[in-house]
Amino acid sequence: MGVEEKSRASGDSPRDAVLPTVNPEAQKAQPPKSAIHPAFYVSIWIAMSSSVILFNKWILSAKGFDFPVVLTTYHLAFSTIMTQILARYTTLLDGRKTVKMTGKVYLRAIVPIGFFFSLSLICGNLTYLYLSVSFIQMLKATTPVAVLLSGWALGVSQINMRVFLNVSVIVVGVVIASYGELEFVWLGVILQIAGVAFEALRLTMVQRLLSSAEFKMDPLVSLYYFAPICALMNGVVALFWEVPRLTMADVDRVGLFYFFLNGLCAFGLNVSVVFLIGKTSSLVLTLCGVLKDVLLVVASMVIYGSQVTLTQFFGYSIALGGMVYYKLGAETIKSYAGEAGRQWADFGNRRPVLRRISIILLSVFIVFSLLGGFAPNYAAGIDPTEYLNEAKSKIGMSA
């Protein structure tokens, strides 16, 4: 065959038979995107976390149920039962099948972690008897500092003085906030600091345990292993400390329905954490935690009438700023701030009226907070009735 015939033959070959660059079957096999926006999971987690704290405060303080260890034991027993049910009838706890848990590992790792977990819960609930929710949240801002120190003590992380100076800003802010607290109770502060220290030790031990790939656990699987031993430990403490003086009148004062609802909220919080991390990231959880703390302070001011002074507000702002800087870093904060500014400008272009309404509502909220929650109570011991009666008598009205 000549060269001319070869070229003619090659020219006659069909050029439409080109291999596809994308496999249509692979495109069909891709899972559909979730129809639920991540903001939904964020809102649920903030609502559940805030509800548990405010609910516990209401039971222990407003309802006079001064049995924090019994309440903690109940929460853990409730979580134990619920995790066992979920493990049998759902797939939420299938992650436990990848954990190589043995009796030796359980005794050497899970039991010590459960011990510190129990102590942190007991101290945390005891604190509600002495301090306001707003001040407790301010003291909890020291948790990153405690985690850093415990990590150095247990050899999990290397000592870094630059990082230590960064987190020292958090301590300075909390000290300022404590100085401005109107109802400062030393016992409550000591209990809260102890609770933060125990929680820091627990988190550090969990970090050391999870450093091995064979022990990767989400919060719900962790609760599956920790809840039974913690319930047992707390139950022993409650049996000798609080149960002898506990009566049915104390239980009836709260109500069985509210106890059930409280346990359900505490367990729902752990479930919401799993979904939040799964649908977003641990970074989003950190940022949402800061937002949740601020909302809790405001909720405490509105619901319980907690007084927050300007000194506390200033100190807490420093602590929150230091905590965000420590967890995110300067570059990440700059990128998020820039993105937030662009989103806000775009929102103003698309919804100018709604943006103005948002600014007005925020301004009203700030003014309300300054005039209401931050205003000191100068006349705490004055009864205005006698002054009103005296004014009425002077103008000829009957008292």
Describe the sheet with the most strands: none
Question: Can you count the beta strands?
Answer: 0
Query: Structural class, please?
Result: mainly alpha
Separate helix tally: 17
Report mean pLDDT, rounded to a whole number: 75
Distance between the termini: 126 Å
Uncertain regions spanning at least 5 consecutive residues: 26-32, 373-384
What proportion of the residues is helical, as a percent range? over 70%
* SSE series: HHHHHHHHHHHHHHHHH
Q: How big a fraction of the residues is strand?
A: under 5%
Rg from C-alpha positions? 28 Å
Gross morphology is globular
Put the structure in a nutshell.
By secondary structure, this protein is mainly α. The chain contains 17 helices and no strands.
Describe the protein.
The structure is a single chain. This protein has 399 residues and is mostly helical. It contains 17 helices and no strands. The radius of gyration is 28 Å and the shape is globular. It is found in: Endoplasmic reticulum membrane.
